[in-house]
Every structure is written in structure tokens, then in C-alpha cells.
Prior knowledge:
Elements: H1 9-12, E1 20-30, E2 37-39, E3 56-58, E4 60-71, E5 76-80, H2 87-95, E6 103-110, E7 113-114, H3 119-122, E8 123-126, H4 138-149, H5 156-169, H6 190-202, E9 208-212, H7 220-235, E10 239-243, H8 249-252, E11 257-262, E12 265-271, H9 275-281, H10 292-300, H11 307-344, H12 361-377, H13 380-401, H14 408-449, H15 455-485, H16 491-518, H17 522-538, H18 551-554, H19 561-574, E13 580-587, E14 590-597, H20 599-606, H21 613-637
Amino acid sequence: MFDLDEDLAYFVSKKIKVSLSFSNLTYRIPLKGKGGVKKRGFKSTCCGGDRGGEPYVEQHKVILDDLSADVPAGRLVAVMGPTGCGKTSLINALAGRLEAGGEVYGEVLVNGQPRGKSYRALVAYVMQDDVLFPNLTVQETFEFAARMRLPKKVSNASKMKLVDTIINELGLSKARNTRIGNAMYRGVSGGERKRTNIGIELLSGASLIFLDEPTSGLDAFQAMNVMESLWTLSTSGRTIITTIHQPRSSIFKMFDLLLLLSEGRTMYYGPAKDAVKFFSDAHFECPVNFNPADFFLDVVSMDYRNEDAEEASRERIRLVAELFASVRPTFEGGIQKQHRLSIDGCDDCTDLNVVVFPNNPFTEFGLLLRRAWKQQSRDILPIAITVVQTVVVGFILAAIYSDMGSSATPVQDELGILFFVCIFSAFGAMFQALNTFPTDRAVVNRERASKMYHVLPYYVARFICDMPTRVGQGLLFGCIVYWIVGLNPAASAFFIFCALLIVEGLAAQGFGICISAVCPNEKVAFAIAPAITIVLILVGGFYVNQDAIPVWISWLKYVSHLYWAYMGLTINDFAGRTGWETCLNIVNGTCIATVETSGDEVLARLGFDPDHLWLAFVVLIGLMVFYNSMGYLFLRLSKPKTMPIANERPKKT
């Protein structure tokens, strides 16, 4: 149990206590095909239909069928039922996180009022999937959540004490300094990941907590610890609604209320301790010393082994639903009375205009910058790959193009290596963004859904943490290639060369994030980004002369970071220099006549102005800002879309 002192009074005495009620909640999704799918079934009388058992054509699949319930504040509610009965869909709908793609109807009230904009600030939601940053330790993950989610009026010492309390209660003391880990790096166990995910939401101090299968993947002892922590929170005024699959009997006894579902319909809703009596009255006797939770699932589960078993189980479920509908007022009377008392007895419960974001953007930025730096600096493999790749490619280029002279052929070679440098820098930065951003986005979407922080501080913090990699790669590559190849010997030209690579890398990184943010998943991003980059390479100024590019596509060069980087590198290398020779006549592959050519003449043939080096820098910086701005915009718009609940009930089809 939680052992909290006066310093943590905020956590245990949240000002707003939340009672939840929902009525006629129906969720359905369209079936594929124009004519629907024929299904054998009945339309329950409790939901307004007949029950002839005749086959009928159903245009939609009903996930939740006319559910209603009142949940008083400070209750621990278990949502149980067989797989596919609609448990997760129900808590998603109640939490306001039901993804778009169907129709949801009904009414959800919080303390007797419709859900408002600040509703999510009152809610914590523990998802079934554990999405966490792999390179942070358990302690660091909790500390970040506490500092980010709890308001300033809770002192830092109190936040850290709360972190220690939850770590101990969730049995994570031995793993507190262990990294979360992922498929590549060994970290905490699967059960420890699950408990860490739960602990993050417990740190929020939310008034209403939803959990989706919080005990899955845990052994019996740890599952008991988790549920004891939730029970303690409910006794302190929190409202806890959790889906759970086959809890042990000692856990089942902790539940205040039980909502039992099957095929999207209510089989039972009332005090958990009275469920056995209800089933007994319905002539479904729970054997002595038998886990009631297991027994209930046996009764309300569909059996698809054969047609006879399916028909028998469907008839049994119909019978249970009808029996509960007939006695429902008996069970709900006491719950509704408690629901009204929990609202009437709280003076501040109707004031739901809480602060949505606990911290100001500057505080958010500081916390996010610190986390991003830890995450990226500890990700050794990508850093090592970048270093090895840069060194190997750099020395290969140096070996091939070393000590270029000033004859006609090396002019073309020099242009070729400059363009290759542009491609290498752009692809390296882009693919690194494509590899790392999807993982970040999964965590960020979860945290954004909880109203933990704004998107802009996160994006700026990430950009700043990416800069050392781009700066280091540009300097390392320049040091290896520049002097061995024999480019412009002026020291200032070397630093300009490195600066151009750095700025181009930052622009390409923004381009990669932009593509990744607008694409629905990593596979699509990896398919689209190289294709677009190939087009930008074609208009980059090396393979095709600018005058030969058709007008309808030539404008692409202005948004191509490769074009402006190539322009800057060639101007930096050729402008104001002389001594090159251009071949006038070639016989049998041998040049028999040459003429001296200056660097400015080479630039003129490419269509570049020797005085426009500054322009290359300005446009590259502009593209860096543009790509990152678009990446930020797409990230902000790409959060999972949820469906509002319509008050109008659907028509039967």
C-alpha cells in the first residue's frame, strides 16, 4: 500500500473527485462489401429488437450495444468479458480515445456534465502496449513523468519521494537503475516494463484512471501488488476503471463494481460481491472454492467449436442478458444513489476547468531537452554506425580521388566528388531521421494524448540534440576528404566546406522528419523518402544541365537542398581560381588539344554565379527551417484522430 506523508497531500487528496456516467453507448464499425455480411444471430429484447434467431443482413458490426452505467467517485471498477467482447473499445470510448473509423453514439457525463476540453487533464490511461524510451532507466522515466505531470505547487522533493514510493510499491526497486531496453538492447523484463508503464500514469495524480489489461504479462504476486496500488488510489478518491482478464480470486475481491460484457452487451453491472448471487438466481451456480471470475467467463463466452455449441452458448448469453435486464433496477438503484451523493457531496466537483498543461513551455523544453539528450547520447549503435560509415566512405573517396591535378578530366572528377559529398551527407541525415523518429512519435503521441506537454518544445529539444551528430559528421568527413583529395587549399574554404555539409545535413534531417511525420508508418516513409530524394538529385545540377531541365519540373531545384549544397560547394572550390585545362579535341580516347579554363568559367557552364556563395547558405538555412517547420506541423496534425460521441442513436440495419 502507499505510505504517503503530508508532503504528498496533493497526490492523495485531489481536489476534483470524478463520477462518471454513460448511457445508451453504442459503437459500431462498417462491414466490408456493399451488401453487408449475413450473420446468424438475434436482436436482444433488452436492446429493442426481436430474437427470432433468423439470419439477417447486417450492414455494421456492433462492438458496443446500448451500454449504460453510473460509476461513483472513488470506486474500483472491473470490466470483464471474453476476448472480443468490447472491453478495450469501451474504455477507449469513455477516455475519449476511440480512434476514427466507425460510429459511436450515446452520452458520457463527468460529474453530471458533458466532457469538456480539460477532460483529458483529469484522465490517465494505461495502454496495453508498453511504449517507452529504451535508453532511459526506470528511475529516470519516473522522474521525468513526475516533473512533467505534477504541477509546481508540488515540491521537487515531494515528487521524488512519490517516485520512490511508487517504484517500491510496484516491485521495481531492483530495476530502478536498469534501462528500459528494446529488441536490440537487453533491459528490464516484460513484466517490469508493464509495471513501469502503469507507474507513469499513477504519477499523474489524475482523478480518473483507465487501464487496459494492467496485469497481463505479470506473475500472480506482481499482479496483486499492482491491483493493491490501484485499490489504494481508489480509497483516496480516485475513480479507477480497468479491463482485466481472469483475475485471481484475491484480486476479484478488491473490486467495488463489476461490469461483465459479452458480444458488446451488458451481462451484469453491480457490486462485484453480488455477482455470484445474481448468477445463482439465474440457475448458474458457482462451485464452492471456484474463482468467480473464471466462472463468469465460462458462462458468458461464445463456443465456436461447432454449430450446436455455438447455438447453445448464444442462447445462454441471450438468457443472461435478459435476466439482468429484468433485475437491473435492483442493482443500479444503490449505485445511482451513491453516484448522486458523490456529486452532491463535493462542492468543487462541478468545476472541471483544470489546468490542461501543468508546466509552462520553457519548463517543458528544459525537461524534454534533458530527456532527449540522455536518450540519444546513450544510443551508441547509431552513433558508431555513423562514425564508421563516415570514416570508411571518406577514405574510399580519398583513395579514388587523391591528388587530383588540373587537367580536363579532374575538373569533371572534382565536380563529381563534390556532388557525391552532397548525396552522402543528405542520405545519411535523412535515413537517421527515418530510423529514429517513428519510435519517438509513438511515445510522443501517448504523452500528447495525456496533455503532458506541447509539441513545439519537444520538437525544438529534439532538433538541438540532433545537431551534435550533424556537426560531428560534417567535420569528420571534411577532415578526411578535403585535404587528401586536394580541393581549394585555402583554410577558409575548408571551413566553408564543412559548414555547408553541416547545414545541408540539418536540412536533410528536417526533410526526413517531415516525410516520416506525414506518412502513416515507417515502411511508407522508407518507400517515399528515397523516391523524392532521387528526383531532387536529378535537378541538383550535376547530371543534367539546368537549361536542359523542362520548365514544369525545373522549379524543384529551388526546394532541393542537394542543389543549393552543390552550388555552394562548387562556388567555394572553383571561384577565383585558375589553372584547369579543358579538352578541345579527343581522338581515340586521347585529348590532343586543350585550352586553359578558369574556375569561374566552370561555374558559368553550370549556371552558378561565383558571388552567390552567401545565397547557398541562406537558402540552405531557409530549407532547414522550412523542412523542420513542416515536420513540426505534420507531427502536430498527425496525432491519432478520435471520434466524438454523437447524441443521436443509430438506426437498426
